[in-house]
Amino acid sequence: MNKKRFLVLSGFILVAALSRIIPHPYNFAPMGAMSLFGAAYFADKKFSFLVPLVAFFISDLLVNNLLYANFYGGFTLFTPGFYWMYGSIALIVLAGIFILKKINLKTVVAGSLSASIIFFLVTNFGSWIGNPIYPMGIEGLLMSYTAGIPFFHYTVIGDLFYSGVMFGAFEYAKQRTPALQIAN
């Protein structure tokens, strides 16, 4: 394993995850991008899943216990309904493994848009299942998806932005540092 490349890839993902602490519009976040990034660059696919999930968990601990501490009223290990978010990250990684076999502008944009759609569909489905304000049935499911629409454009913009920054910066770093070109 190329340890330098592994550490740089992991560092990119962790920094992206920690950017959630910076004030931002709702859903303008790096989740899709860091999941795709891991899928594209880790040769050992277990790290494609593991590193983004661990980075998201670390950032969630900080977000929940620093930024939203008053909301939760005590130490929060997991956000309510966390499994829908973590599940969407895993599905985005899986999609990224197939979409990003070749890394170029077209596949990164396609992956980013796919990530946004996956996150929207999975987390709003989870909201429908877990939130009693939505009636069980197709009407409630459609209500949940409709409620998520105002946030979807921020998801798309965030995924495109973070994907552009992460993929662009790493490709630039690979050109400057030959050791990063060798896959793990």
TrEMBL record:
Transmembrane region(s): 27-43, 50-69, 81-100, 107-129, 149-170
UniProt KW keywords: Membrane, Transmembrane, Transmembrane helix
Domain of life: Bacteria
A Pfam family annotated for this UniProt entry: DUF6580
Coiled coil: none
Signal sequence, start to end: none
The protein's name: DUF6580 family putative transport protein
Species name: Gracilimonas halophila
